[in-house]
Design brief:
The complex is a heterodimer of chains A (about 260) and B (about 775). With about 260 residues, chain A is an alpha+beta fold. Helix content of chain A is about 35%, strand content about 25%. Chain A contains 11 helices and 14 strands. In chain A, the strands form 4 sheets. Chain A has a 5-stranded antiparallel sheet. Chain A has a 4-stranded antiparallel sheet with strand order 11-12-13-14, with helices on both faces. Chain A has a 3-stranded parallel sheet with strand order 1-3-2, with helices on one face. In chain A, a hairpin with a 7-residue loop joins strand 13 and strand 14. Chain B is an alpha+beta fold. Chain B folds into 3 domains: about 200 residues, Alpha-Beta Complex (Aldehyde Oxidoreductase, domain 3); about 325 residues, Aldehyde oxidase/xanthine dehydrogenase, molybdopterin binding domain (Aldehyde Oxidoreductase, domain 4); about 150 residues, Aldehyde Oxidoreductase, domain 4, CATH 3.30.365. Chain B is built from 20 helices and 28 strands. The longest helix of chain B has 27 residues. The relative contact order of chain B is 0.12. The chains are: A alpha+beta (about 260), B alpha+beta (about 775). The complex binds flavin-adenine dinucleotide.
Chain lengths: ~260, ~775
């Protein structure tokens, strides 16, 4: 790791100010991605501005069916929230399969979506739920937020403060682990929301998380795993690596989509 | 068997310190003035070094010095060596290319060490390393052994034309070919044994300390055999004469073979300590471990197995290409030859065997022994082949094996080994019963009903442990003898120190070796200390690998104990005025049989040291040394059965059950033996399902972290069903055979046989990842 200075922000305003003062600074949440990247000397922020101690960024609030998850809420809190599980168990399930207990107690939803790793789980949930990403300066629809591999709509210095969504009528998530990293080799989130059926796929797309419109249409007319049987998954825009080529990923996308529908009930 | 003696399930004495974080590993060692080292490594798989400019780096904050290969050579530090000479079948010696501890002209794999930076802190050393300008001229690279042998392949060492190190054979080619020509059936198969990274939990580390006042060196290192390290560093690398070099291997967190070898870092840190005048410590990080710890396996073989009309095996012909990486590591030449081809008879009576082995340089990490070393490769090849033959012949794989078992002992194989004892059928029967082999068809039908594919597979392995008889290995090319030493030092108060040349890095010697002494003398296990791993404390020893510390290391302790007991009895007889022949040692006392005369153990020890009243002419003291050289290898054997269920939609394998029936001879501590088997099975299952080293076509290591190299985790593994059969080894005093490697040797073929049984496609290679299984299932349809 290169030398760096640590700052503990007391509020979102404080964080923004600190970040503005340090051009080569970076926000730090759980550090589960950033710190290991720094240890490998692949990132060299001069300053780390820690967001985890800002009370306003932490916690889950539920108002009727409207859910807001603070950006600094660790995965374990999402996985373990009874209130959330009562109205949207799929997102709790998703969080419960991220990494291992250490990672789940440190890593946060804000860090995960800001990082937008193509194999991360949360992007599928956030996109599948048609969630809104709230920042210190605006609200961004999930459809606009995830732009490319490790790229988001966030501007320089913009802080994710929360993710909010309406609890769906039904939702389910199915993940196939990468055998080594146990990130998603393919993860599919399906949801029946007030704005229609959504199917979001992570782990597979060459440009990161994406929606599968063929699946969405099929499920809109027939909410069942069988409805997906005859729908092709195009492998041309899917990732190929050591663990899974595009053809195998295409197969997994369909299998996981069906399993997500079954999980949703 | 007492509560603490041989056969007792004594919990490990060493675990208190390990479980409470009080282990003392090399990286925990700190000495005054100590500095940190960082190795600059080649980013290219193959390149010429045109120039190294460290001038800017040397003036950076905290930097003590930057040293390179030219300086090392100028100081007369020698090249690394391979210590086992193999001759090709044309009689020529193996072609060993130069391996400089720091490359001076050419780098040959990504990770090859080029220079060392010594600085106040590791951060400063790394900063300075980035400021060292190295001008490389990249050269074409090759990573696959078969490709390296092809015409026009990049040439890696001038000494080895066509990258061929040796072309060696064992067995009778003519008899084998004749038997194949006249066979009723010949099974042919190509077998690939995947390259693995050892990944001990503790990465390698070393601390080199040069004392200018005494002109003396101390080397702390993560070694399985510190005496061998000292011998090799002094005899071949000219670091220092043996009496000026102390090597200490303190607690070592796993080795699996990868810590047998002498690597560049120990040598360079010792040399750098003298050069800079400060103690120099280096600790590998995980990426460096992937890039530089010797890898294992990496064979490609063509196999023919011939049968007569009665399904008896008449011949086995094997043609193997083994990838040895960029340089010949310390024992690399022995692994695909005498630790491999000599086991190709397996548990079967095969009249004719011929093995041809070509070893090859590639631009990859050196390959050497890894848990099992040669024997997993032989077992995988044989057990995949015989399973395939059973399928082709339409007979039960169990019965085909049973029909061909060796049944009378000793048995001389056509490939050197002389099996001393065994009962292969006992293990086969025990395993089949434990697995409910008969009920498999019903379970398969059940799986099918729920859309899953179920398969069952077995593997009957044999291995050679307790390495090794010195004269025998010497005649085969070994540069060292493979005996072991022990000193039993009874203190004046009766407590005991056992100094062993074996080294424990997970095996539990502090417990099992103490059990042996406690059982013999009837003294509490807590009064016995096992001392190992320091060349200043312990007499010359050969270290731990090849499941040898029980069969060879403990046998040396038995010999030393015999001498201690004999002397103690003489003293006791003298003190109690009885005949020496009548003295027995029991429950911590020396008793005169048939009387009520007895002396506690400590009093006899005290008498030996006060020396006030010893038999005439006897030397004071109670301390004996012994060297034990085994008469033969030992031959653990057993039968493993795996039952799997495959999800046809994803290709995922679920291990429903795994049965291991092993004959390790007599067992010192069942708890520790079970742990060794569990760990070995985890590694074997890792090889079969998860682990593989991948390079890209430029020789970059793609699997350089746990993000891409899949290690087995607890939930990848089932609960194992273990049992033990026992034919005691006739060749050592304890009747033990060794258990450290069996799990890793026997398990891969059982799993692949089970998966191929389930999916009906035999063309699967390890690791059987979900993608590969899914692809194989689709190819089968
Ligand atoms: C062993 C291991 C296993 C893992 N397995 C999985 C897995 O299975 N699935 C999965 O999805 N993930 C997995 N992860 C990643 C984990 O979920 C991380 O939590 C996540 O990638 C990043 O979250 P973080 O809070 O740690 O962010 P950090 O590492 O602190 O930050 C990540 C990036 O986001 C930026 N950032 C952080 N917070 C904000 C914010 N509020 N606003 C704007 N920018 C911000 C940082 O500047 C940085 O660039 C794993 C990680 C590890 C170490």
């Amino acid at each position: 790791m290169y030398a760096t200075s640590y700052h503990r922000a007391s509020s979102v305003e404080d964080a923004v100010k600190l970040r503005a003062a340090h051009e080569e600074g970076k926000y730090l949440s759980g550090g589960m991605t950033l710190i290991s990247t720094m240890k490998q000397r692949l990132a060299a922020p001069t300053d780390l501005i820690d967001l985890r101690h800002i009370a306003a960024l932490r916690g889950i609030s539920i108002d009727g069916r409207e859910v807001t998850i603070g950006a600094a809420t660790p995965h374990a809190d999402v996985a373990g929230s009874r209130e959330l599980r009562a109205i949207c168990p799929a997102i709790c399930e998703l969080a419960s399969h991220i990494g291992d207990p250490h990672v789940r107690h440190m890593g946060t939803i804000g860090g995960s979506i800001a990082n937008n790793d193509p194999a991360a789980d949360y992007p599928a949930g956030v996109l599948g739920l048609a969630a809104t990403v709230i920042t210190d300066r605006r609200s961004i629809a999930a459809d606009e937020f995830f732009t490319d591999l490790f790229e988001t709509a966030l501007e320089d210095g913009e802080i994710v403060t929360a993710v909010s969504f309406d609890a769906p009528e039904k939702a389910g998530y199915a993940k196939f682990n990468n055998p080594a990293s146990r990130f998603a080799m393919v993860g599919v989130f399906v949801a029946k929301t007030s704005s229609g059926v959504r199917v979001a796929v992570t782990g597979a797309g060459s440009n990161g998380v994406f929606r599968h419109s063929g699946f969405e249409q099929a499920l809109a007319s027939n909410w069942s795993a069988d409805a997906l049987s005859n729908i092709a998954v195009d492998s041309s825009n899917l990732l190929s690596d050591l663990h899974a080529n595009a053809e195998y990923r295409a197969n997994l996308v369909k299998v996981m989509a069906k399993r997500a529908v079954v999980a949703a009930g | 068997m007492g509560v603490e003696g041989i056969g007792a399930r004594v919990t490990r004495k060493e675990d208190k310190r390990f479980l409470t974080g009080k282990g003392r590993y090399t990286d925990d060692m700190t000495v005054p003035g100590m500095k940190s080292a960082y190795f600059i490594r080649s980013p290219h798989a193959h390149a010429r070094i045109k120039s190294i400019d460290a001038s800017a780096a040397k003036s950076m904050p905290g930097v003590i010095d930057v040293l390179d290969g030219k300086q090392l050579q100028a100081d007369g530090i020698g090249n690394l060596i391979c210590g086992w000479m193999i001759h090709s079948k044309d009689g020529s010696p193996m072609k060993m290319g130069a391996w400089r501890p720091l490359a001076a002209e050419t780098v040959r794999y990504v990770g090859d060490a080029v220079a060392i930076v010594v600085a106040d802190s590791i951060g400063e050393a790394r900063d300075a390393a980035e400021a060292v300008i190295i001008d490389y001229e990249p050269l074409p690279a090759v990573t696959e052994a078969t490709a390296a042998l092809e015409a026009g392949a990049p040439q890696i060492h001038p000494e080895a034309s066509n990258n061929l190190i040796f072309d060696w054979q064992l067995g009778d080619p003519d008899a084998t070919d004749r038997a194949i020509a006249s066979a009723a059936h010949v099974t042919e198969i190509e077998i690939v044994n995947n390259r693995l990274s050892p990944n001990p939990m503790e990465p390698r580390a070393t601390l080199g300390i040069y004392d200018s006042a005494e002109d003396h060196y101390t080397c702390y290192t993560t070694s399985q055999n510190p005496h061998v390290a000292r011998l090799v560093m002094s005899a071949f690398y000219n670091v220092a004469p043996e009496n000026k070099l102390r090597v200490i291997a303190p607690d070592v967190g796993g080795g699996f073979g990868s810590k047998i070898y002498i690597y560049p870092e120990e040598i360079v840190c010792l040399w750098a300590s003298k050069k800079t005048g400060v103690p120099v410590k280096w600790t590998s990080d995980r990426t460096e471990a992937f890039l530089t710890d010797a890898h294992g396996r990496d064979h490609v073989s063509k196999v023919k197995m011939a049968f007569d009309a009665d399904n008896r095996i008449t011949a086995l012909k094997v043609d193997t290409i083994a990838n040895l990486g960029a340089y010949m590591s310390l024992f690399s030449s022995a692994v695909p030859t005498y630790l491999y081809a000599t086991l190709l008879s397996g548990q079967y009576a095969i009249p004719a065997i011929h093995a041809n082995v070509r070893t090859v340089y590639t631009n990859t990490v050196p390959v050497d022994a890894y848990r099992g070393a040669g024997r997993p490769e032989a077992t995988y090849l044989l057990e995949r082949t015989i399973e395939t033959a059973a399928r082709e012949l339409g007979v039960s794989p169990a019965e085909l094996r049973r029909k061909n078992f060796i049944r009378s002992f000793p048995y001389q194989t056509p490939v050197i080994m002389n099996y001393d004892t065994g009962d292969y059928e006992a293990s086969l029967d025990a395993a089949m019963q434990a697995a409910d082999w008969k009920g498999f068809a019903a379970r398969k039908a059940q799986s099918e009903a729920s859309g899953k594919k179920r398969g069952i597979g077995m593997s009957c392995y044999i291995e050679a442990c307790g390495i090794a008889p010195s004269q025998a290995v010497g005649s085969l090319g070994a540069g060292v003898g493979l005996w072991e030493s022990a000193e039993v030092r009874v203190n004046a108060v009766g407590t005991i120190e056992v100094l062993t040349g074996s080294h424990s890095h997970g095996q539990g010697h502090e417990t099992t070796f103490a059990q042996l002494v406690a059982g013999r003398l009837g003294v509490p296990i807590d009064s016995i200390n096992i001392v190992h791993g320091d060349t200043d404390k312990v007499q010359m020893g050969m270290g731990t690998y090849g499941s040898r510390s029980g069969a060879v290391g403990m046998s040396a302790i038995v010999k030393a104990l015999d001498k201690v007991e004999a002397k103690a009895k003489k003293i006791a007889a003298h003190l109690m005025e009885a005949d020496e022949q009548d003295v027995v040692i029991e429950n911590g006392e020396l008793k005169i049989a048939g009387t009520d005369k007895a002396l506690p153990w400590f009093q006899v020890a005290l008498a030996a040291y006060t020396a006030h009243n010893l038999p005439a002419g006897m030397e004071p003291g109670l301390k004996e040394t012994a060297f034990y050289d085994p008469a033969n290898f030992t031959f653990p054997a057993g039968c493993y059965i795996a039952e799997v269920e495959i999800d046809p939609e994803t290709g995922e394998t679920d291990i429903i059950q795994f049965v291991a029936a092993d004959d390790f001879g007599n067992i010192i501590n069942p708890l520790i033996v079970e742990g060794q088997v569990h760990g070995g099975l985890a590694q074997g299952i890792g090889q079969a399902l998860l682990e593989a080293v991948h390079y890209d076509s430029n020789g970059q290591l793609l699997t350089a972290s746990f993000m891409d190299y899949a290690m087995p985790r607890a939930d990848d593994l089932p609960s194992f069903k273990l049992s033990h059969q026992n034919t005691p080894c006739p060749n050592n005093p304890l009747g033990i055979k060794g258990c450290g490697e069996a799990g890793a040797i026997g398990s891969p073929p059982a799993l692949i046989n089970a998966i191929t049984d389930a999916i009906g496609n035999n063309g699967l290679t390890m690791p059987a990842t979900p993608m590969k299984v899914w692809q194989a299932m689709h190819a089968a349809h």
